[in-house]
Amino acid sequence: MNKIILTGDRPTGKLHIGHYVGSLRRRVELQNSGLYDKIFVFEADAQALTDNIENPEKVRQNVIEVALDYLAAGLDPSKTTLFIQSQIPELCELSFYFMDLVSVSRLQRNPTVKTEIQMRGFSGESIPVGFFTYPISQAADIAMFKATTVPAGDDQEPMLEQCREIVRRFNNIYGETLVEPNILLPENAACLRLPGTDGKAKMSKSLGNCIYLSDSADEVNRKVKTMYTDPEHLQVNDPGHLEGNTVFTYLDAFATDEQVARYTNDYATLQEMKDHYTRGGLGDMKCKKLLMAVLQETLEPIRQRRAEYEKDIPAVYEILRKGCEVARAAACETMDEVRRAMKINYFDDRALIEEQARRFQK
Ligand code: TRP
């Protein structure tokens, strides 16, 4: 069986280093591993609109930002199909048929839907149907491309579970047609959910605690300098705590031992540095200096690639347009199979027409 990757993001803001360690870095590695037959990465603009109903301009502006972030991070359009969800109308078609396979109560039990309903303050039945049913549309995104592997954060696990259920039900009723996907989670806890620079649980634009992939070197350094560390580590000699210490969480997510050794001279591994910090005698600024160096080493090539692509924005739209064409061709193939399986392929079924003709001639 083909090994196919599909994953995507809602284009509601520029991508930050949380996106990078949570998913983007892994996508580039998978792309370059040569282990996959096809890789699709897409912008879920239609899904973004389900909770930005009155703000289409925000989505429109961020489609190009996210495309630049993808390319800058190293996604290569000659290896990865980059596309935009709304440009694949077949996704609506598959979602429509998937709606027959899911009950209202099953959707209400989806933990992601549950928390998002609370977060956005929708009370009871005032929730827009499009928002409520987005797990179904997301299942269609995944199933349409017969993805075997979906690299994503653990917040997407309920979506994947729901997708597998839908695919299973579809195959049971209509015959083996679609593929059950597996989630591929980030490699370690620090990467799973990178906290904000203020130590809050999540990086988010509204909290102003993000380091963006497109931030300048100065901006990154400024943000690291003011980062949250250990409030009890007042004097250099005080024992420090690693738990909840954002600088160390970021180092866990970004720094290799080789980098620690190269930039500090004092420690061969990150663990040695952590031990010193916990014993006492290691100042926050020294840790932040290391983090700055490590972040710059990661982000500088990304910034440079972004600057190159920014010089020719029409070419970036052209990359997306071509990606949409490739994705659409794949979607049309799957829909042919889906229509055949669901017995709604009336006009390309000669046998059906002849059989009906015979039936009525008797
Ligand atoms: N829900 C994802 C997010 O919030 C975006 C998304 C839509 C997605 N469809 C997908 C991710 C399919 C993986 C696979 O970022």
Produce a short descriptive summary.
With 362 residues, the chain is mainly alpha-helical.
CATH class of the largest domain: Alpha Beta
CATH fold description of the largest domain: Rossmann fold
CATH homologous superfamily heading of the largest domain: HUPs
Shape: elongated
The number of E-state strands comes to 5
Strand content: 5-15%
- Average pLDDT confidence is 94
Describe this entry's structure for a reader.
By secondary structure, this protein is mainly alpha-helical. It has two domains: 4-193 and 312-354, Rossmann fold; 217-309, Orthogonal Bundle (Tyrosyl-Transfer RNA Synthetase), CATH 1.10.240. 57% of the residues lie in helices and 6% in strands. The protein is built from 17 helices and five strands. It has helices at 17-33, 45-50, 56-73, 90-98, 104-108, 111-119, 129-132, 134-144, 157-174, 189-192, 217-225, 246-254, 257-264, 270-279, 284-310, 313-341, 350-361, and strands spanning 4-9, 38-43, 81-84, 149-151, 182-184. The protein has a three-stranded parallel beta sheet with strand order 1-2-3. Strands 4-5 form a two-stranded parallel sheet. β1 (4-9), α1 (17-33) and β2 form a beta-alpha-beta unit. The relative contact order is 0.13. The mean pLDDT is 94. Bound molecules: tryptophan.
